[in-house]
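Bumping my old thread because nobody answered last time. Still need a sequence for this structure:
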């Protein structure tokens, strides 16, 4: 189903690749944290963080309903709509039910700290109202790397949030950033990220290659100038450590974002041996595994 409805967004608007056909409902603008040194998504002046009033959200839902187009999925934007209080989220989800009763799934980006003041019972209530998938940018499970990039989260806070989501019967889709620790922290970044996933057992896991669209300056500052970006072989080696350490029961794994050289897809651990072998081949037999050409990569 292709949703063609475009609401009056404050651009730019970002959404996960898997929400390409969802209606994007901008219930907040920007990101309440906006301080991760790798992320420039909401740094433009017009993206300064604010909540959208309920009345405006309802007007937009009414406008969508009046088109008569069927909407089955909604993604709540922007960067961390889950910063909204339980009460505000409840009102938004109730309004979605009222105006667009055909909606089957609502999802959102979610920072671990967004869930701190929400109980498992409240999340379960939101899940009953349709909010059932959270995209959590853990980025790493390594405390040192997380501190270097100023994520404001660590292994324990990330795990607590992922457990809360699971406890509420909702699903999580975790993003890990390949290359985020540079050469120095590559191995510990990979291994601790895998450990975090092993404890959390998310339903979905994807990796993206970290990129620096406007330069390295801000990022380097966090690393005291010691950050050395991984080359292609370094990125593959890190992916090998990550995959090799993962012990997952039933997680859909995707490393197919446009930023990746090597496209990997499967269900873990069922497909672990195949995926590990593909990465090993890419490392040991250059040319044996087809790679995405540089010009096709992009955020
Ligand atoms: C729009 S952000 C919102 C995520 C949410 N605020 C969170 O932190 O969980 C979505 C994701 O894009 C990815 N991202 C942001 N900047 C990036 C960069 N420079 N290179 C690669 N991935 C990046 C990160 O994985 C981030 O979690
Ligand atoms: S990665 Fe997420 S939390 Fe960090 S600045 Fe970007 S949108 Fe905000």
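Sorry it took so long. Here it is:
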């Amino acid at each position: 189903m292709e949703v063609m409805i475009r609401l009056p967004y404050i651009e730019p608007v970002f959404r996960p690749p898997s929400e390409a056909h969802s209606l994007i409902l901008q219930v907040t603008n920007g990101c309440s944290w906006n301080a991760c040194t790798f992320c420039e998504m909401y740094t433009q002046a017009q993206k300064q963080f604010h909540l959208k009033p309920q009345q405006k959200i309802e007007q937009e839902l009414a406008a969508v309903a009046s088109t008569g187009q069927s909407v089955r999925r909604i993604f709540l934007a922007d960067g961390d709509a889950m910063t909204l209080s339980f009460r505000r989220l409840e009102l938004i989800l109730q309004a979605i039910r009222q105006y667009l009763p055909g909606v089957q799934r609502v999802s959102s980006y979610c920072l671990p700290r967004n869930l701190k003041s929400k109980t498992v019972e409240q999340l379960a209530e939101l899940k009953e109202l349709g909010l059932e998938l959270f995209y959590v940018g853990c980025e790493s499970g390594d405390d040192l790397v997380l501190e270097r990039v100023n994520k404001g989260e660590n292994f324990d806070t990330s795990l607590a949030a992922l457990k809360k989501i699971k406890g509420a019967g909702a699903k999580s889709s975790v993003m890990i950033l390949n290359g985020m620790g540079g050469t120095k922290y590559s191995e510990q970044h990979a291994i601790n990220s895998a450990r975090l996933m092993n404890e959390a057992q998310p339903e979905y896991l994807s990796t993206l290659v970290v990129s620096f669209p406007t330069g390295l300056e801000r990022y380097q500052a966090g690393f005291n100038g010691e950050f050395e970006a991984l080359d292609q072989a370094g990125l593959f080696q890190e992916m090998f450590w990550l995959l090799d350490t993962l012990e997952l029961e039933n997680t859909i794994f995707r490393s197919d974002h446009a930023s990746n050289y090597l496209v990997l897809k499967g269900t873990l651990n069922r497909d672990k041996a195949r995926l590990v072998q593909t990465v090993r081949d890419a490392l040991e037999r250059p040319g044996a595994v087809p790679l995405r050409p540089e010009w096709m990569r992009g955020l």
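The longest strand covers residues 131-139. Let me know if any region looks off to you.
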